[in-house]
Amino acid sequence: MLFEFDSDQRLWQKTVREVTAKECAPTLIRSIVDTGADPSPLWRTYIDLGWTELTDPDTTVELAIVLEELGRATDPTPYLATMTQFAPLAPGFDDAGRSGAAIYDGVSVRRDGDGWILDGTASNVLDGDRADRLAVATGAGVFVVPAEQAVVTRSPVFDPVLHLAEVSFHGVRVDGDRRVDVDVEPARHVALTGLALTVVGACQRILDMVLEHVRERRQFGVPIGSFQAVKHKAVDMHVAIERARALAYYAALTIAENDPRRRVAASMAKAAAGECQSVVFRNGIQLFGAMGFTWENDLQFALKRAKAGEHLLGGAAEHRALIAEEYRATHL
């Protein structure tokens, strides 16, 4: 495994960053929150640029770079759910122009002639309310269902740009050709790694804003960034981000190589991202002072995206427990 970006990947990172700075600027996020602007043109931009075609394991690192940059920009589209949750569960149903969401539990299935019947309700489905298709994991396989066959209700969430939904199936019949025999666990590794990268990107955005603020904010005639206590908090944020970033890309590499360590690596990445956002959230708010609590300050969007990423698909404590169980199973 290579643990540094090669020249092509560095160019790719630069390109993605330039695109997000232009197309997913803070003004767009603010307009979506304040006036209900439509993010669909941005989603179409991703499709036109080919970003929704990064579904092959060989492109996992390139996808990871996109996910980190979109986390940094507080992406308002269904890209994360489509690429890291739906796509790994639904190979063979790739369609670069359509969005998707994944349901991992809460839905049961039973045979009905040459088809299947789905029943049940899933909560906190990422982008379940605006996906074109749903990949539903059950004990009998994964079923790819058109979203209009489900009853979907968007759930209120503190991140105003994030979409979570309750998705219900009431005797929905699905033809046998919509069933995919896929292992759900490796698909979850991609989902966990994608969330970890999103959190890392959001945390990097918080640190960037904090550093800009402490360079400009002055007290006693000097920038507050010159105070030792402020420096220590900023360094703590930087160290936490670098640790979480390293583990997230390590997880991406294990997925790209189909390395057996991918299970632990994905949990390590998610746990580190959760621990990172805790440090960055706390220090970021404190270093911004009262300004960080105002609605007019865009810091809130990165803070909320980072915090939401911690709670989706299990928090840091849950994944630390999984890592401990794996260690005991292999070393005792």
Description of the molecule:
- This protein is of the alpha+beta class and 332 residues long.
- The protein has three domains: 7-89; 100-180, Beta Barrel (Butyryl-CoA Dehydrogenase, subunit A, domain 2); 184-331, Butyryl-CoA Dehydrogenase, subunit A, domain 3, CATH 1.20.140.10.
- Helices cover 54% and strands 17% of the residues.
- The strands form three sheets. It has a four-stranded mixed β-sheet with strand order 1-4-5-8, covered by helices on one side. It has a four-stranded antiparallel β-sheet with strand order 2-3-7-6, with no helix packed on it.
- Strand 4 (133-138) and strand 5 (141-146) form a beta hairpin.
- Helix 5 packs antiparallel against helix 6 (184-216).
What's the CATH class label of the largest domain? Answer: Mainly Alpha
Protein structure class: alpha+beta
Sheet with the most strands, sense and barrel status: 4 strands, mixed
Number of domains: 3
What CATH architecture of the largest domain would you give?
Answer: Up-down Bundle
Categorize the overall geometry.
globular
- Can you write the helix and strand succession as a string? HHHHHEEEEEEEEHEEHHHH
Pfam families: Acyl-CoA_dh_1
Keywords: FAD, Flavoprotein, Oxidoreductase
Organism: Rhodococcus zopfii
Protein name: Acyl-CoA dehydrogenase
